[in-house]
Amino acid sequence: MLVVGLGGLGSPAALYLAGAGIGRIGLADPDTVSESNLQRQTLYEVRQIGMPKTEAARQRLSAFSPDTAFECHPDGLTAENAAEIVGNYDVIVDCCDNFPTRYLIDDVCASCGRPWIYGSIGAFSGQVSVMNYRSGRRYSDLYPDRESLCARPREIPGVIGTVPGVIGTIEASEALKIIAGFGRPLDGRLLTVDLLTLETEMIEF
């Protein structure tokens, strides 16, 4: 299992995957722990501010699940290393916060034949889906306007801390369903959740 992005989404996703007994988890993120993000990145502690997220996450998760093997990828996922890294894992969990990385994951997973769980968040809402699984549906099918989305300036909007907690937990649940072969994953379906109204919507694509 590879978790790409160890911020607000990756924190709960990695914790629940480790707690579920996944034997080997890859941790990919080029950033460091920041004080301003601690309110939603619950994987970290104040004493870890300034530490690479991969190492900080490994420390916390190893204490939580000592029998799990954690592999750190402190450069994150890039065009140069993505194929090699993704090819070493069975399922990819996307917890990143930008369009270029999502499209990169989409391309590499299609090439390597790996399913991946997509998650993204806004101020009070989020969405989750499963890509490149049995239906073959991809992120580029859901969002075909790749050039315009990737050209957008990177923004960091305000997010209530509970939103990534909810969405990241759903992502972990979808990953476990694929690994263990139970339930109906969000294959070719997009789940949207609005925490202001607690309304959900399921969209087939």
Note the gap between the termini. Answer: 25 Å
Uncertain segments of ≥5 residues (pLDDT<50)?
A: none
Secondary structure: helix percent: 25-40%
DSSP helical segment count: 7
Measured by DSSP, the beta-strand proportion falls in 15-25%
Oligomer: single chain
Radius of gyration: 16 Å
Overall strand count: 8
Note the main sheet.
8 strands, mixed
Biggest sheet: strand arrangement: 3-2-1-4-5-6-7-8
- Residue-averaged pLDDT, rounded? 96
Secondary structure category: alpha/beta
Would you list the SSEs in sequence order as H and E?
EHEHEHEHEEHHHEE
What is the overall shape? globular
What is the element layout, followed by pairings?
Layout: E1 2-4, H1 10-19, E2 24-28, H2 53-64, E3 69-73, H3 82-86, E4 92-94, H4 99-112, E5 116-121, E6 125-131, H5 139-142, H6 146-151, H7 162-180, E7 189-194, E8 199-204
Salient structural properties:
205 residues; alpha/beta; 8-stranded mixed beta sheet; 34% helix; 20% strand
